[in-house]
Every structure is written in C-alpha cells, then in structure tokens.
Amino acid sequence: VPSTARDEHALEDQVLQETIAIAVCGKPNTGKSTLINKLLGYQRLLTADIAGTTRDTIDAELEGKDGQPYLLIDTAGIRRKSTISQRIEKFSIIKALDAVERADVVLIVVDARLGVTDQDLKMASIAIEKGCAIAVLLNKWDLIENKTDQTATEYIKEAREKFSFIDHIPIFTISALTGTRTHKILDIAKKLYLQASMRVPT
To answer: What does the pLDDT look like over 162-188, one tens digit per residue?
Structure first.
C-alpha cells in the first residue's frame, strides 16, 4: 500500500480537529432541507413541497458517528436568472454562492427523476473554482418507478457524462425521505475533504 494511501486511511479513522463544512446545494425542491433533517435526526429545517421554501442559508452543527464535527450549510435553491422576478430570489443566489465560499465540500442534490441540469453544472464549476470537493446525490430514488438491478447504474452513468469535466466525482442514489444510503454521506464528505487536503502541498 503506498504511503499516501496508508496516511489517508489513518486520517479517515481519526477525528480531525477542524470542523468539515458541507454546503448542500441544488435547485429548489430537490430535497436539500429534508436531507439535512435526516442527517441531523430531527426536524431542524422547514421543509415543504413548494419550490423556494428556504430563503436563506441555515447552518446546523452535528457530529459524525466517529465524533467528527461537521457544519451543514443549507442553501436556497439556485434558479435560472431569467426566471427570477423578485429581489429576494437574487439574494438567495448570493447566499448560496456565499455558502460555497465557506464550504470544504459541496453536495449537489439532484432530483433523480429530472436529472442533472445546467444549473447543477454551473454550481459544480463555481465549487471547483473555489477549491471545494464535490459529490452528487441523485435524490428521491424512492420515487423512481420500475427499478431493476441496472437502473442505478444507468442513472449514475448518465449523470457522470454530464459531469465529465470533473475527475472521479462520487455520484450515488439516495432518498432523503426514507434514508436510503444517507448514512454514507458524512463518511464520503470526510474522505473528499482528506483527499483535497492531501493534494494541497504543505
């Protein structure tokens, strides 16, 4: 095992002194607040099936099962500027970009039924420019009908083609509502944070 891989695994097993900041981004109504509620284990954020419910960024602190501290930053959904008619929506976009500025890891939440959009790709580009690690969560997997053993592979492949400008990006299916695979998210965020830290020369 190369020493860098050994070092990375050793770090994964220990609690880091620093808090890992995770921005949860995506279009309105993709389930961002529901996801954070699931990770926190209680109803911390307002959720509703109405686009644009969350108007501001909301920070929530939690510990991983290993005691690792995290800061979750819930953002208002990013909308296309052409559809924005109120100043409050412009403010929401500014706050979402501010969340990326403060984040170590950006989770892009996508409604799996609708697929990856241009806004998702734009947010990924901004996150890369800011030096953030990225993972893509294909949410609402419980609402995908007639699933087979190959369905997830097909959806992930399609998403990966859209994000082809990012190497080795983690993409996986989840259901924030039912909790399917949400237990993996913090571990993946920590791993991404460590990989990004190791790429930065000391």
So the answer is: 999 998 899 999 999 999 999 999 999
